[in-house]
Amino acid sequence: MPAGPAADRPSYEQARDELAELVKRLEAGGLTLEQSLELWERGERLAAICEEWLEGARAKLAAAIRTAELDAGSEDDADKPF
Predict the structure, then answer these.
(1) Where are the alpha helices (DSSP H) in 1-82?
(2) Cβ–Cβ < 8 Å for 70, 56
């Protein structure tokens, strides 16, 4: 398990779910300007966390695709005489 701030970072699903709840609270209204700003700022942080998770997933997927393509290419090369 990572140490430091990354260890305190919520999972993608946790951040997404909390963000959805914040949006519902903001849309419902009835909050003071200060409360709304606090929720907005928290929502911005949660959105950034979700984006980090998604970027990490995209990078892993791209690496897996590259590896699969390289593996497939080396198999094709094995059949060639030169």
Answers:
(1) 5-8, 12-28, 33-78
(2) no
- Domain extents in the chain: 12-78
Q: Is the pLDDT of residue 7 over 70?
A: no
Return all residues near 31 (Cβ < 8 A) that are at least 6 apart: 25, 39
Residue that is written with structure tokens 């690496």 in the block: 63
Find the helix packing angle between 33-78 and 12-28, rounded to 10°. 150
Note the pLDDT tens digit of each residue in 11-44: 999 999 999 999 999 999 999 999 999 999 999 9
- Token look-up 């701030």 returns 5
- Cα first-last separation, the chain: 47
Name the pTM for this structure. 0.72
